[in-house]
Amino acid sequence: MLAENLKYLRKKKKLSQQELADTLEIPRTTLGDYERGKTEPNIDTLIRFSSFYETNLDRLLTSNLGLQDYEIIKNQNFRVLAISVDQNNNGNIELVDTKAEAGYLESFSDPEYIKDLPKIQFPNIPDGTFRGFEIEGESMLPMEPGSIVVCSYVENLSQIKDDRTYIIVGKNEGLVYKRVIRNEGRRSLILMSDNPLYAPYEINYEDVAEIWQYYAHLSFSDEKKIFDNRVEDRIIDIQKNIEEIKGFIKK
């Protein structure tokens, strides 16, 4: 782990190889060889690295220090949250698409799994922890299946605001995108679909693994055209029903 740790720790301090080499009084090319794993530092140099980065030698040599940035939230409400960071130590926006959903439910707290999820960019996003989720099914129409919902992480159940939309990751029921109302008396959340054809249902607090609040979404379809087509289909259905009623009356 030494080469990866040396590279990770230098980037975390936002130092160039030349800046660190000058500080530790070693050639830059030598430092580059250390970070590539081409050569290994002697014990005196290892001690200087250990002192400079304020970490003990055992962790420097045997632990994957890059994983320490993944487990950032741990409280009594939710599980540990794993995230990944870019080269500037800023949190990435991982994308959980339809294909990744099953794996996400099994490996949500595994940093190695989270690290390998696709990353998306979103302009002018505020500080915080964000994740993208692909929406499937028609329970949240007019938001189209296939849209990507970018959400911010909710650290505590008390932060949930009634009648807002959230990604709910249930320990038993999987991942859903719903409008939420808290039922504090029953210690549960009422999950409602924007599509009235789908009935609301409840999930107990203790069955919630993660909650992500809607921030924005990316759509890949012409929503006006889809809406117009739905209206046209509805009008056709109404006309058919009227004709059936007329036929029934004539009989």
From TrEMBL:
Entry keyword set: DNA-binding, Transcription, Transcription regulation
Q: Which segments constitute the HTH cro/C1-type domain? A: 6-60
Pfam families, per database record: HTH_3, Peptidase_S24
Domain of life per record = Bacteria
The keyword Nucleotide-binding appears for this protein: no
Q: Which GO terms describe its molecular function?
A: DNA binding
Matches recorded under SMART domains: HTH_XRE
What is the protein named?
Answer: HTH cro/C1-type domain-containing protein
Which InterPro entries has this protein been placed in?
Cro/C1-type_HTH, Lambda_DNA-bd_dom_sf, LexA/Signal_pep-like_sf, Peptidase_S24_S26A/B/C
UniProt KW tRNA processing keyword: no
